[in-house]
Write a structure and sequence with these properties.
single chain; 248 residues; alpha/beta; Rossmann fold; binds NADP nicotinamide-adenine-dinucleotide phosphate
């Protein structure tokens, strides 16, 4: 059995892991959210790992409110940077593999080509900066870690763009969506199943590694919203706007 701790287990990605539990009988999952295991609390983590010999920690805990991180900078740093450093150190001390998730926000978004693992990072806002610093701590401490960068997550769980468009369509006739931001929407259950396959096949190396994972293809938020409208048979008008006008 592979004993796996999933932190931040009540978030969108954490719930996606919970959803797949029964598909992977070779795993013994322990799910913990903030109130049961705070990844910023080194003592709490230490006590947990002393009592529980885990093979892998899947870190779904994060501060993910991009706009609010500009206000709660310190909190975002504690969760997205400092706590990741602690987990990385503990991965060496307690000999577990750490699967950590990162984001496209570590890039500045100006490239016309898809970003690859060694593209230079240049985060613009606090969320991206704190996530980028978390990555750096893993690489610096040479934790037993895989950093999986993903983007535009959607799923039946938590908060995401698909659910937002569906909910807005019930309140508004017209929804403004930006058409000048391009990305790759990623279904969390695809991500979860591939991560669990990787762990299950024991193809994790000892050195820290960065991996980009998204679903295939690319689109704008506007085109994505139009597709959601068609597939979910929504009764609303999707209006294309530019990012600059959305901030006005
Ligand atoms: N969502 C996306 O589109 C997206 C895209 C790219 C990468 N990612 C990355 O994917 C990962 C998962 O994202 P997500 O969408 O699942 O985020 P999420 O829905 O916001 O879930 C994060 C979870 O972490 C918990 N948490 C916060 N602080 C914690 C702490 N100190 N200790 C333990 N748990 C804590 C949160 O609890 P509370 O709700 O109680 O605070 C929440 O349950 C993150 O690393 C994120 O950066 C997400």
């Amino acid at each position: 059995m592979i004993k796996a701790l999933v932190t931040g287990s009540n978030g969108q990605l954490g719930k996606s892991f919970q959803h797949c539990t029964l598909e992977y009988p070779e795993f013994d999952f322990i799910y913990k959210d903030f109130f049961e295991l705070d990844i910023c609390d080194e003592n709490q983590l230490g006590n947990f790992f002393k009592k529980n010999k885990v093979n892998v920690v899947i870190n779904c805990a994060a501060y993910t409110d991009v706009d609010q991180s500009e206000v709660e900078t310190e909190k975002a740093e504690k969760i997205n940077t400092n706590a990741v450093g602690i987990l990385s150190d503990l991965s060496i001390k307690y000999k577990f593999k750490l699967i950590h998730f990162s984001t496209d926000y570590i890039f500045d978004g100006t490239s016309n080509k898809p970003y690859v693992e060694d593209s230079p990072i240049a985060p613009l806002g606090v969320y991206g900066k704190t996530k980028a610093e978390g990555e750096k701590l893993i690489l610096k401490t040479r934790g037993n870690a895989w950093i999986i960068r993903t983007s535009w997550l959607f799923s039946p769980f938590g908060e995401n763009f698909v659910k937002k468009i569906i909910s807005l369509s019930q309140k508004k006739n017209k929804i403004n969506v930006v058409s000048d931001q391009i990305g790759s929407p990623t279904y969390t259950l695809d991500l979860v199943r591939d991560v669990l396959k990787i762990i299950s096949n024991r193809i994790l190396s000892n050195d820290p590694k960065i991996l980009h994972y998204t679903n295939a293809g690319q689109t704008s938020w506007y085109e994505f919203a139009k597709k959601i409208k068609v597939l979910c048979k929504l009764n609303c008008f999707i209006n294309s706007i530019e990012t600059d006008s959305s901030k006005a």
